[in-house]
Amino acid sequence: MATSETVKPYTDDAGKKQQVADMFDNISGTYDFLNHFLSLGIDIIWRKNAIRTLKPLHPQYLLDVATGTGDFALEALRMLHPQKIVGVDISQGMLDVAQEKIAKKGLGDQFEVALGDSENLPFENNTFDAVTVAFGVRNFENLEKGLSDICRVLKPGGKAVILEFSKPRAFPVKQLYHFYFNQVTPRIGKLFSKDHRAYSYLPESVAQFPDGQQFTEILHRVGFTHAESRPQTFGICTLYIGTK
C-alpha cells in the first residue's frame, strides 16, 4: 500500500522532493486563485484560526515552512505583528510570487523568503518562537524527519502550528468530500492549470496522509512535549498544535 512518502505527483524516477518542487514551479502562476476557488474561500478562515492560536504566545521570530506564495506568512504578519518572519520553500517558482507580494507591500524588512528544505532547515537549534506550516507537511518526502527538524529549530516552549487536509468520517460529508476531491478538483485544476497532475496528486496525497491521532502521535515521537488536533469544517481540514 502506498504511504504519504511514496505518493508522488509524477510517474518518473525523480524523488518525491524534486517532483513536488517541479509541480509547484509549474502551478505557481495559478496557485493562489485555484487554492481559494477550490476551497470556496474556506481556506482563508482556516488560516486565520491557525494564526489566532499563536496570539497568547506573542511570537517575535517566526518560521513559515513550505511558505509557497507567502499568503499564510503575510496573514501572520498582519495578525501577530512579529519582528520578523522567514519563509522557506523548495519551489523557486512559488518563492518568486511571494517575493513580488513582499516588494509590492514594502515588507522586505519584516518578511524574507529563501529556498530551503523542510528536512534540513538552514537554522540553528532553538531559533524560532513559532513555526507554521499550511498544507505542506503531506508533501514532505520524509514526514518524521521534517517534523523533527521543525522541533529542533523551535525554542523550548515554542509552538508548531500545522494546517493540513484530513479525511472526514461522518455521513454525508465524507461522501461529498470524496466526490469533490476526486472528481471535481482534478477537472477544475486541469481547466485552469497547465499541470493537471498537480490536482490529481492532491486527493491521492491526502488519502495516504496519517491524519488526526496518528499525526499527533508522530509529533510526540519526534520530540514535541504536547500535541493536539482540532478538526475544522466537518474534518475536511485539521489544525495541529505541537509544543516543544
- Number of discrete domains: 1
Task: Give the ordered list of helices and strands.
Answer: HHHEHEHEEHEHHHEE
Strand order across the largest sheet: 3-2-1-4-5-7-6
Backbone shape: globular
The CATH superfamily appears as Vaccinia Virus protein VP39
The chain-level mean pLDDT equals: 90
Uncertain regions spanning at least 5 consecutive residues: none
User: The CATH topology is what?
Assistant: Rossmann fold
Overall SS class: alpha/beta
The major sheet is characterized as: 7 strands, mixed
User: How many strands appear in the DSSP assignment?
Assistant: 7
Cα-atom radius of gyration = 17 Å
What's the quaternary structure here?
Answer: single chain
CATH architectural group: 3-Layer(aba) Sandwich
How much helix, percentage-wise, in residues? 40-55%
Bin the strand percentage.
15-25%
Any key phrases for this structure?
single chain; 244 residues; alpha/beta; Rossmann fold; seven-stranded mixed beta sheet; 7 strands; globular
